[in-house]
Amino acid sequence: MKTCLWPGDNQLMRAYHDQEWCVPNHDDQYIFEMLTLEGAQSGLSWSIVLAKREGYKKAFHNFELEYCSSLTDEDLETIKERGYIIKHLAKLQSVRDNAKAILRIQEEFGSFANYLWRYVDFKPLINQWDTDAQIPAETALSKQISKDLKKRGFKFVGPVTMYSFMQAIGIIDDHVRTCPYHTSNR
């Protein structure tokens, strides 16, 4: 079977593709991790972000929401200077802001997963692409989620980032049809 081409020969990208990408996930801590990493990717390649993933986990205590929501500006500066992460202060500040926003959503919806998955009636959207080139960068749904998250105070959640995020947590399965990891082939 022909697999998706985008991971190339990069081992981290291949492992992410094979084990995580487009796999439905409802764990708020993991979802927060993916939101953080997708936001960090803005303007960069996914391979750079994956190479720094362990640094992010260490810096943000494995994406523990309460910890991240309580970070001070000084804490974020220290993380910026010492951490093996992308040293973009606004992206680092978004980790704190987004953690706070997720905690508010959890109060309203019971979980961040509930909030997100309700957009697709709690069932993943399974696409049937023949080539990687057919996969869109954004959709009406990613624009809708982006708009609502921004209203709720989230940062680095533009429509393109949200589309990648939906793939990351399995709301969308965008493996090409011939990929052994496509839902219909598992």
UniProtKB/TrEMBL annotation:
Lineage top rank: taxon: Bacteria
A GO MF label: DNA-3-methyladenine glycosylase activity
A biological process from GO: base-excision repair
SUPFAM superfamilies cross-referenced by the UniProt entry: DNA-glycosylase
Keywords: Metal-binding, Zinc
Database matches in Gene3D superfamilies: Hypothetical protein, domain 2
A Pfam family: Adenine_glyco
Residues binding Zn(2+), per UniProt: C4, H17, H175, C179
Keyword Transcription assigned: no
PANTHER family per the UniProt record, alphabetical: DNA-3-METHYLADENINE GLYCOSYLASE 1, DNA-3-METHYLADENINE GLYCOSYLASE I
Protein name: DNA-3-methyladenine glycosylase I
Lineage of source species: Bacteria, Bacillati, Bacillota, Bacilli, Bacillales
